[in-house]
Amino acid sequence: ENAENMYFFSDLALTLNEPEERVAPTDSRLRPDQRLMESGRWDEANVEKQRLEEKQRAVRRRREAEAVEALEEGKDYEGYIPLWFERKVDAVTGELICVYKGGYWEAKEKQDWSTCPDIF
């Protein structure tokens, strides 16, 4: 019903970005620019998007500087380590894949998001 006004998305597709309570603060559904856009506040959404992108660039620059400093000092630098996934080589394909290593559902149950970075 009313599909022509909903870009012909399925019911599932229309609900994928619905807010959900008790999710990690890094959940993409919590992106402030997205929420503003969905409210029709386009100018504010664009300003917020620019702020988020600059914040991401600053984090990337900081990590790159830390990597250079570690290299100059002859130290190892691990860089970003995902919280709930680990990179592994697929035994069949030989490709690098990300495998869930646990922790998300436990953190959600306890509502303990203290390990999550501040990305927004």
Automatic annotation (TrEMBL):
Annotated organism of origin: Syrrhaptes paradoxus
Species classification: Eukaryota, Metazoa, Chordata, Craniata, Vertebrata
UniProt cross-references to InterPro entries, sorted A to Z: OSBP_sf, Oxysterol-bd
One of the record's GO cellular component terms: perinuclear endoplasmic reticulum
Protein name as annotated: OSBP1 protein
GO molecular function: cholesterol binding
